[in-house]
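Let's study a protein:

===
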Amino acid sequence: MGIVGATVYHKTLGRGKIIYKDLTSVCVKFDNEIIKFFSPFSFGKKLLDEFYKEQLELEKNTERKEVFERSKLQEAERARLEQEIIEQEKAEREEKLRQKKEKIRNIVNLRNIKEILHFTAVDNLESILKNGILSRCDIKGQVMKATVNDELRLDSYTSCICCSITLPNAPLLYKFKSGNIDKKYVILKIKPNVLWEKYCLFSKENAASNRTCPRCTVEAFEQMFGDYDKMHTRADLEKLYADGFIKQNMPTHNQAEVLVVGQIEPEYITGVYVFENDWSSEIKKVWEKYQNIEWKRCPENDFMRRCKNPEKAFWQNTKSVQM
């Protein structure tokens, strides 16, 4: 490499720069403006060694700096791309969730679903209207006491609240009412909004059954109103009721469930159905405190109709059906 333009050092004159070189001389201009000519033979190896050393160090530093800067840029670009991917995936998840909610809401509107129902012991009524409906798991973490409907909870979904659509789970309610005549029940009326505003699992039959698997999809929600199987179709069910009792807003199976994950807050509860003979003084006290919701006598003939014949016999042979 040429040495013109190179920096050199002199023990007395200090730092300088080579401004000219030929076969007979080397011209150096020093920082103190002194210009000196040196013989190429007497120029001194040390001066050139210092020059090459400085140049090499400068080149190394420059290279390291460039590598570092490139690394910083690459790291920044990677971070930007990663963040972009995260945001894109989040946006896609939110869009899928929005579409799912919209589809469920459309089904609710098309089927004219007006209310979700949950039955509970009268002992729990005031606490529920104040604090909302809690799952079994949430109740365990609270100081408050609660009377549970099902001690066994064979469905194992203890972090969920069991609800039904349009009509209560008549066979289960009948079982609880007849199994403990001293315990009084009410049925809570809940906004259908929970179906798309809450995380819900949909089961076309009782979730404790080994013939079904609750899922949180739109398809699972639609299946609640479709054919149970080839031997128990929606059309077959509707034929059982000559008076047209089975409406579009009623699930096919009389124990179809919606499992609402977590809590159902008080603002979702719009009313209370009370059985004809259960207007106790305890219920009246609660009624006096909560006049902002609807209180109605339970239409027991309708609410309990699906646990009786002919539908009771209709579902008895499902245990032998291969799903």
Summary: The first helix runs from residue 45 to 110. DSSP finds ten helices and eleven strands in the chain. The mean pLDDT is 85. Residues 114-316 form one domain.
